[in-house]
Amino acid sequence: EPEVTQTPSHQVTQMGQEVILRCVPISNHLYFYWYRQILGQKVEFLVSFYNNEISEKSEIFDDQFSVERPDGSNFTLKIRSTKLEDSAMYFCASSAEGRLGNTIYFGEGSWLTVV
Amino acid sequence: GNSVTQMEGPVTLSEEAFLTINCTYTATGYPSLFWYVQYPGEGLQLLLKATKADDKGSNKGFEATYRKETTSFHLEKGSVQVSDSAVYFCALSSDNNNDMRFGAGTRLTVKP
Fold it and tell me: What would you report as the CA-atom Rg of chain B, rounded to the nearest whole angstrom?
């Protein structure tokens, strides 16, 4: 069964460092997403991406964050200068379409620890 | 705005017990409703969904009915197994699915 894959599964970084989280969405999907889950809290929407541009983003997704689809298969989340409060599980997701009710498939997550 | 409230855990049950995890929502329009499950060490997996009122989503013995009158989407299973131990998330999407809202998650532990 096709799946969304994410790397790394766990990364520890020092505050102020740049981090890139990588994702390979399901191959025929067109919509890509990043969500995050701070330990013990809700899963929160960060950003959605379609047709090589951001289609929607939340308040969390400030100037420190960026996303990119550098080639036909990868979808990356970059945090330019990490803060302690960026420590969370980051989930990449993809869907075939963006319309209401379409299933979003999630990866296993990348656990980011900022020290 | 749109939001989801689900029963706080943790929930601990014996094998073969009946499970209910409550979920209520607040949304404008006609959202789609989902239950996702996260097994230990794994990502979020879609368990079931319902896209309109009175629809029943079902999978692996789990069921949930989209109740517009009570704005609810409670998850039920008649007889849980140890392998059902996981965290369950109720979620909602509206408009174009870009902004899926999740509940806080309910951790279920099933003991033999």
Answer: 13
**Nearest residue of A to residue B43, measured between CA atoms:** A108
> How far is the C-alpha of B61 from the C-alpha of A80, rounded, in Å?
44
Q: Are A70 and A52 in contact (CB under 8 A)?
A: no
The two structure tokens encoding residue B79: 């007889």
Per-residue pLDDT tens over the stretch A10-41: 999 999 999 999 999 999 899 999 999 998 78
Transcribe chain B into DSSP letters.
--EEEE--S-EEEETT--EEE-EEEE-SS--EEEEEEE-TT--EEEEEEE-STT-EEEETTEEEE-BTTTTB--EEESS--GGG-EEEEEEEE-TTSSS-EE---EEEEEE-
Q: Any CB–CB contact under 8 A between B102 and chain A?
A: yes
